[in-house]
């Protein structure tokens, strides 16, 4: 998979994308990520990419033309037309299912807005979908873009040791993840559940499923009801 990120702060993005699992995945060619500085594609001699909004109001709005030129440069370099996403609090909230669907796409272009957002005309011109990471507002789209990339990338072949690493986790199958424990077996007089020490795989699997049901029922009753409805 290839992911291109159009942003005003490529260094901010690279700081996240070069570390830990994502950094290793890039080095191992499990996925290709390139960050593009939108300021490189403005015709303004001061590298300005924003202006005051028509109709008045506070803040500045990112102009359509530099974003479009940046997008054209991505397409020219890759020779493909990517699936185009704008990170926006107005978008559909990101889910594990949507991340799984995106992980099957060969090429994704992510636009990060800033200030008061971007000119609506560029969204109408090139964007396929808007995605939010929650019902709140951040100062820019860079952090949401990193969340989206991390969520999608970890399901790509070779990024994690095996698919079970993400299939067992919260939300993948509709339930929250069961509790996890590690050494020592007793800590502050609290013992690890005895079934986990037995080595009996079926009993452990049954215990984990029961725990997932219980945790979901208590912490996310909406997910629990949805899970039961599907079953």
Please explain how this structure is put together.
With 231 residues, the chain is an alpha/beta fold. The chain folds into 2 domains: 2-153, Alpha/beta knot (3-Layer(aba) Sandwich), CATH 3.40.1280.10; 168-230, tRNA(m1g37)methyltransferase, domain 2 (Trp Operon Repressor, Chain A). The protein has 9 helices and 9 strands.
Q: Which features characterize this protein?
A:
alpha/beta; Alpha/beta knot; five-stranded parallel sheet; two-stranded antiparallel ribbon; 9 helices; 39% helix
Topology, pairings included?
Elements (H helix, E strand, L loop, with lengths): L1 E6 L2 H8 L2 H8 L4 E6 L12 E2 L9 E2 L1 H15 L4 E11 L2 H7 L4 E6 L7 H7 L2 E4 L9 H12 L10 H4 L18 E2 L2 E2 L9 H19 L1 H10 L1
Parallel strand pairs: 1-2, 1-6, 5-6, 5-7
Antiparallel strand pairs: 3-4, 8-9
Helix pairs in contact: 3-5, 8-9
Strand order of the largest sheet: 2-1-6-5-7
Terminus-to-terminus distance:
33 Å
| H/E topology pattern | EHHEEEHEHEHEHHEEHH
Give me the count of strands. 9
CATH superfamily of the largest domain: SPOUT methyltransferase, trefoil knot domain
Number of domains: 2
Helix share, percent = 25-40%
Alpha carbon gyration radius: 22 Å
Question: Which architecture of the largest domain per CATH?
Answer: 3-Layer(aba) Sandwich
Mean of all residue-level pLDDT scores: 94
CATH class value of the largest domain: Alpha Beta
Q: Main beta sheet: strand number and arrangement? A: 5 strands, parallel
**Shape by Cα distribution:** elongated
Low-pLDDT windows of residues: none
Bin the strand percentage.
15-25%
Secondary-structure class: alpha/beta
What's the helix count? 9
CATH domain topology of the largest domain: Alpha/beta knot
């Amino acid at each position: 998979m290839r992911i291109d990120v159009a942003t005003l702060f490529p260094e901010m993005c690279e700081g996240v994308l070069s570390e830990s699992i994502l950094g290793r995945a890039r080095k191992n060619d499990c996925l290709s990520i390139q960050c593009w500085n939108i300021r490189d594609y403005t015709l303004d001699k001061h590298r300005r990419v924003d202006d005051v909004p028509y109709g008045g109001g506070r803040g500045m709005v990112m102009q359509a033309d530099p974003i479009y030129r940046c997008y054209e440069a991505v397409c020219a370099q890759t020779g493909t037309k990517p699936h185009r996403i704008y990170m926006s609090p107005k978008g559909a909230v990101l889910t594990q299912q949507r991340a799984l669907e995106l992980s099957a796409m060969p090429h994704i272009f992510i636009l990060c807005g800033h200030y008061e957002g971007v000119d609506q005309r560029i969204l109408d011109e090139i964007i396929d979908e808007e995605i939010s990471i929650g019902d709140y507002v951040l100062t820019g789209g860079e952090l949401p873009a990193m969340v989206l990339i991390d969520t999608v990338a970890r399901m790509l072949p070779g990024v994690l040791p095996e698919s079970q690493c993400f299939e067992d986790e919260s939300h993948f199958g509709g339930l929250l993840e069961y509790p996890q424990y590690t050494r020592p077996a007793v800590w502050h007089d609290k013992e690890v559940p005895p079934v986990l020490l037995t080595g009996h795989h079926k009993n452990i699997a049954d215990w984990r499923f029961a725990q997932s049901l219980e945790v979901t029922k208590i912490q996310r009753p909406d997910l629990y009801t949805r899970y039961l409805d599907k079953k």
